Amino acid sequence: MTQSLPAVLITGASTGIGATYAERFARRGHDLVLVARDQDRMEALAARLRAESGVQIDILKADLTNGDDLGRVEARLREDEKIGILVNNAGAAAHGGFADQDAEAVDWLIRLNVTSLTRLTAAVVPRFIRQGQGAIINLASVLALAPEISFGVYSATKAFVLTLSQSLQVELGPKGIYVQAVLPAATRTEIWERSGRDVNQIPGVMEVGELVDAALVGFDRHETVTIPPLPDAGQWEAFNGARQAMLPNFLQSRAAERYRAA
Ligand code: NAP
User: Fold this and answer.
1) Which of 64, 68, 131, 192 has the smallest CB count inside 10 Å?
2) Which of 214, 208, 180 is nearest to 86 (CA)?
3) Measured torsion, CA atoms of residues 85, 178, 124, 189, in degrees rounded to the nearest 10
4) What is d(CA 112, CA 107) in angstroms, rounded to the nearest whole number?
5) How many CB atoms lie within 10 A of CB 93?
6) What single-letter DSSP state applies at residue 199?
7) For residues 91, 96, 101 and 106, what is the CA-based torsion angle, rounded to 10 degrees?
8) Residue 154 appears among annotated catalytic residues
């Protein structure tokens, strides 16, 4: 008997990278659960994908910054044993730099990019552990590695996603769960317009289909970190290697010589 493919729950599936993941996973024969705020767009996408791919698609309209809505998505992840892949894709960028944002905007962005992603992951992980399998794809950004580029609190939210993904892979990998962080650079979606930026001012913008197809190559290889636009994988390996080389040096009973008071 062949085992059926796991269903995939995708957040931010109404447009952009999330909608493209939905299309690609549907083509692979996976049933889907689409999550976002815009029901009409998800209905239209679902109708097209059902017709093209014959898969089952459920729609969960939810604002992931709203506690009740987030709770409903968490419950679905806890209870629906068919869902074997979670794509934490919903996200937004901040308008302007840090000094341009008010406290509410900062809080909203953290609730969407950090809190909802973390809570959805926490909701699904115990069931994945019980089932001995499951996969989580987290959309970070190359800005996680580029604090020099001013994007307000956005870059820090993506650094959180990268670190969380890496540490989850260490903890959960031996339990049969695969966690991937995807780090796109500029990709042509609505995120730019939504955050008051003109994508056409940026050189080297990737089309969304190419981005997701490349990310899925990394997924199929079970990479922990996938950086679709980076030409030389050795640069990431050298960076990660330099970081890891520091680890044995962190635990010291004395402060480093340069910090000791004279
Ligand atoms: P996008 O085109 O703006 O799409 C964002 C998606 O998130 C939409 O489906 C939107 O749907 C959903 N969303 C936004 N706020 C939400 C909320 N409060 N609750 C539920 N869903 C919400 O953005 P994208 O470029 O595809 O971005 C997808 C992910 O990739 C994000 O995490 C982003 O940070 C990351 N990324 C993008 C780029 C890039 O250049 N495009 C680069 C690096 C990383 P509704 O409006 O219908 O809710």
Assistant:
1) 68
2) 180
3) -50
4) 9
5) 21
6) G
7) 20
8) yes
**Ligand 1 atom nearest 42 alpha carbon:** 47
Task: Find the angle CA(8)-CA(160)-CA(170) to the nearest 5 degrees.
Answer: 70
The domains located in the chain, with CATH, are 7-231 (3.40.50.720)
89 Cα to the center of ligand 1, angstroms: 6
For residue 17, the ligand 1 atom closest to its alpha carbon is: 26
Residues with C-beta less than 6 Å from any ligand 1 atom: 12-18, 36-38, 62-65, 89-92, 112, 139, 141, 184, 186-187, 189-191, 194
Find tokens 């050795």 and name the residue: 234
Instruction: Give Cα 7 to chain centroid, integer Å.
Output: 17
Sheet holding 83-88, edge to edge: 57-61, 32-36, 7-11, 83-88, 134-139, 177-182, 225-226
Which residue, chain included where needed, has tokens 């290889």? 221
Question: pTM to 2 decimals?
Answer: 0.97
Quick: pLDDT tens for 38-80. Answer: 999 999 999 999 999 999 999 999 999 999 999 999 999 999 9
